[in-house]
Amino acid sequence: MSSITRSKSHISVLTSAINPLANPKGAKKLCELCQNLAYLQCTKCRVTFYCDKEHQQADWVGIHEKICQLLIPIRTATPFHSLKADRDHHRAQILHRQEELIEISRAVAQKKLFEGKYQESLPAAQLSLRCAMDVYGPSAVQLVPAYLLLAEANVGLGSLAQAEGYLSQAEWTVMKTPECSQIVRHQLHRNLGRLYTATENLEGALLHFANDVYYASEEYGLDNIVTCGGYFLMANVFIKQEKMDIASSLYTEVASTWHSHLTKLLETHTPGSMMLEHSFDEAQQAEADQMLRAMLKVQESSPKQATAQNTLVAHSLAMLWFLGGSPGKALEFGRKALQSSQLVPDHSLTEPIQSLLQLAAERGHTLPSQADCPPA
């Protein structure tokens, strides 16, 4: 049974009908996604409601499956406490759970965006925004990350007017908050650059990506994996402008940064040690996979592209998936990297690639063939 089939069969037993007329006078249950009158409720948490099964299914796949039980204490009526200390303790607990919910929904939305699942990311991004409003108020700068997630999802879906609306709200909030962090500013310019790219305003996109890189480098440094995301997006714009030399130079910077980062992580791995699944979060892994695969595809489609760069990118993908706990994918990209390394004069990566193939083969309980690991 496929994951989609399992999800649908599971969903069918998660809802029960509600009668809006049975609600207390003046009280209405609203759909989690569209805020229209609700007729169904989740039978697991009983505090989340939907207008129809389609919205319930979309919310379950998007975020609700991960946070169903977390919603119960937040959305359940506050118990009566006679002592102020008890009331304060209860409020502090609810605030902590709300902040946890903001971070979980934000991480889920970001991962889905990196995977190109724009429609699926919307429920998590919407929940992140609502929770942030509840905690910080309707005009706080803490709402900006959620606005940016919603904007990115709508750019991916081609709903550019909606994306522009979210970005305008985010930009206005940042402008009136002088103490806004460099992190929020870099994220804002990155998403403005994406919108400008989608509208074919390529010069405007490059300006925003340049600002993105500036603010990211101020916070993280020039050779950081966060900063290099801006280089990758700039390179894509230069490809649209048919400036392949500039794009290739930026791709080299991205590949070198990720290769160095992953090599350092791999160096901490010793035979028999635990895998490093938690060396980076799922969103970072999805972002790296998306960028590196895109770069490899462009490089392989260009006969003039240097094979050394192909080796660097394929080796990075192999390390990424090995550290992420997927030895099969590590073997796939490791073999590609090894084949590419044999075609360039500099064989400095051959030995590290062979070692990684051996580790991945052992982790996957298989043995690499001689073709996979030729003598150095």
TrEMBL record:
GO molecular function, one term: zinc ion binding
Gene3D superfamilies in the cross-refs: 6.10.140.2220, Tetratricopeptide repeat domain
InterPro entries the UniProt entry points to: TPR-like_helical_dom_sf (IPR011990), Zinc_finger_MYND_domain (IPR053248), Znf_MYND (IPR002893)
Keywords: Metal-binding, Zinc, Zinc-finger
Domain (MYND-type) ranges: 31-68
Top-level taxon of origin: Eukaryota
Protein name from the UniProt record: Zinc finger MYND domain-containing protein 12
Primary gene name: zmynd12
